[in-house]
Amino acid sequence: MSEGDVAAFTHLGETVRGALSERGFSTPTAPQRVAIPPLSAGEHTLVIAPTGSGKTETAMLPVFDHLLAEDGPPEGFGVLYVTPLRALNRDMRERLEWWGEYLGLEVDVRHGDTTQYQRGKQAENPPDVLVTTPETLQAMLTGKRLREALADVSHVVIDEVHELAASKRGAQLAVGLERLEDLASGVQRIGLSATVGDPGEVGNFLTGGRPCEIREIDVGSNVDVTVRQPEITDEDERLAGELMTEADTASHVRLIRDIVAENESTLIFVNTRQTAEALGSRFTELELPIGVHHGSLSKEARIDVEDRFKAGELDGLLCTSSMELGIDVGRVDHVVQYKSPRQVARLLQRIGRAGHRQDEVSSGTIVTTRPDDTFEALAIARRARDGEVEPAAIHDGSLDVVANQLPGIVQSRDAIHVEDAYETISRAYPFRDLPVETLREVVSELHRNRLVWFDESADRLETTGGTWQYVYSNLSMIPDEATYEVHDIASGSQIGTLDERFVVNFAQPGEVFIQRGEMWRIAEIDDEEARVKVSPIEDPAGEVPSWIGQEIPVPAPVAREVGEIRGVAEPPLSGGADASAVGRELEGRYPADAYTLTEACAQLERQIETEAPMPTADRLVLERQGRTVVVNAPFGHTVNETLGRVLSSLLGQQAGSSVGLETDPYRIELEVPSSVATSDVLALFEETDPDHVETIVELGLKNSDALAFRLAQVSAKFGALKRWQGNGSGRLSNDRLLAALEETPMYEESLREVFHEDLDAAGASAVLEGIQTGEIEVDTYRGRTPIGQGGRSSGGKELLAPENADASVINTVKERIQDDRVILLCTHCTDWKVTTKVRRVSDQPTCPECGSTRIASLNPWADEVVQAVRANEKDEEQESMTERAFRSAGLVQSHGRQAVIAMAARGVGPHNAARIINKLRENEAEFYRDILSKEREYARTQAFWD
């Protein structure tokens, strides 16, 4: 450690050092030791360190020091502190206000919810430090008085810069920083980042390619991660009965419970909101002090659990990716990751939230559920320890961001020459290679859409009547998606919401997905009402969800290492060693106990026992049973998705019919016509030109909902289309959309985005090239293999209740039927008729007029049936109604209130009600379960009856 590092605080002035003493900072933290010297020297600096290690103070202490130097704070804004989350705004203000009060500097916050009064005050009397979001900065850059105040900015701090670098929000911010530079030249840029694989690229993103000092704390060496798959114990069998779930699920809950009990404060990260809710419900049943925190909860609910966790009222907090960022929840002792974190960067960010007392080690446990999960977690844990982190995927040249920024630039200046606008935009790192001709194409599109006026003779851009409205309606690059309500068709209750992207890309009647920890099948989609009707899956064990939530993509290097582990295990297993022996060999390299490694290796042992080839990083295994072809290919999500699209497209052309496709990081599953032979699939691997991959995929995308959805979003940023969803007109035809926009910058950007986020043409081409040069071999197998079927146990079903563990659903149905209204009609005298709630019906309804027990139970809208019974007429339709009423009365006479309940159910007439009542059953829940079953059957066939 250098002398400068030890004496980092000596770079600060006397006033700030006094504040440090008052605050109890006697020794600089690791990021402070290495970063304060270049920051104090005014260098653009990227600070890479774990969340909670004092990065905020690292950045702000030299900044405060500068504001207090010689001339004092400026009249306008001195410092902008930009955070990607409003929740971070709140945290940053609370953390910085103490320093501001002590040092005599004003700290304030500005975001979308800031009142008009407060905004006016900030414009008239700008605070010294303004905490804000990327979107609010966009708005500030167009206001005349605010632009004058921004001209005094000397420092910009970008918090969580790694998050922004990999998004279009970041590309927009990069241009915004250059627009700020046009106002206030020489602004020092400071970035605070979690660990990334390409610090230099993130530094370039931060500074626009200007020189940047990178100060990085080695996180991997300070992280202690263990991978554990719990062994099922007698306690788990008991717990399974208590939770009405399977023993393996109970073992996961028990292990997490025990880890939380061993520590004072534990964050429990999961990969989806559905898993957070499902796991949270288990802890609630056990009455454990563990809260739930994710983005679908209200702001108030999130703040409540954050505060309770910080105060020690909660021992654990179940959370999703939102808690990866620097939201202050106090001290964290340990981090649990439930299931593989999918990426090294994500693991480091999550585990890095633990510890940080004088640079102590951050400890965490990855709880895994099956072999794929375990091997993936092992590879990620090893790569984290050795610092092999994924690069940040910067959005280079996103044209909708250019389209978004040009009207803002014009609005802020009233008029600007095209070359000057290009000079500002192309200084931003994501647009360093943007051809000026491409920018002119965007300008032409904006001119056609009347968002800017292009004076070709003067080569100048001017405002139009629509410029101002566009700018303030499009401050964000986050897509403005509609939300669909999801309703259980049987109970009528809302179970959640779905994003528009899900509905457009995936939702079709018959498809299966997971929400609220349960599996549902789509019955109907109503675009005008933005509503999806679903029915619960009665037997989750027999279903595979075709969609399970927004999956975090597993990178190719991680998936390849899983293939490498298999390759290491293959020789000893083939030589007669068992799974435990192979597990012991892996124990030295990977952080897991013997049981976890043995359980994972048992899958590989079964693969050898079936005499099937082992899929590895250098060997694809193509297996087939019936029409299902599975390509075992450990190359990650985006490579496999690309290869899968190539195969399905070419096979579909050959066969003249569609080919079903599902992919995961380790498999490509194809449902092929019977005319397609295994040799046809093999031939495609051996003969498809690797250089044609992108073209083949692009042709296939032309008819896809995925591209149409992106195209609609991108064209909205160009002002070319009104929002095409939720406006009462239904979905636009893909054909019409593509025909109108195919030769435009919008189409080009939509394709770029699909390839950037979902596909990897270069990686897929490399696999084909490897096969064709012999570096990767391809073997075939007839039938299904243990590894090939390994993906079938995925999808989060570990947390799903078995069929009879549906107490909440049954209770909902019961409550709904009890509150339903029915008409009771005496079929003997026909004089007595009453409308009442089911819960008010006596055990044996009796007519108060004549004493008869032949009481028909009818729907509350069945007045025509009442009239038919009273008229006793004999036309065919009325006779049918009368007969139905008498059958209902006979059932009520025999079975009393139970018959009324059964016939109050939806689509359940006297015939089905009799079948339900006559079944032998153990309890009331079984009775309502049978009613629900009949309701679901009616829901599925309702279209035929209607």
From TrEMBL:
Residue ranges constituting the Helicase ATP-binding domain according to the UniProt record: 36-214
InterPro entries with a match to the protein in the record: ATP-dep_Helicase, DEAD/DEAH_box_helicase_dom, DNA/RNA_helicase_DEAH_CS, Helicase_ATP-bd, Helicase_C-like, Lhr-like, Lhr-like_DEAD/DEAH_assoc, Lhr_WH_dom
Classification via CDD domains: DEXHc_LHR-like
Domain Helicase C-terminal, residue spans: 254-400
Keyword match Membrane: no
GO terms classed as biological process: DNA repair
Keyword annotations: ATP-binding, DNA damage, DNA repair, DNA-binding, Helicase, Hydrolase, Isomerase, Nucleotide-binding, Plasmid
Entry GO MF terms: ATP binding; ATP hydrolysis activity; catalytic activity, acting on DNA; DNA binding; helicase activity
SUPFAM superfamilies: P-loop containing nucleoside triphosphate hydrolases (SSF52540)
Protein family (similarity comment): Belongs to the Lhr helicase family. Lhr-Core subfamily.
Name under which the protein is recorded: Helicase
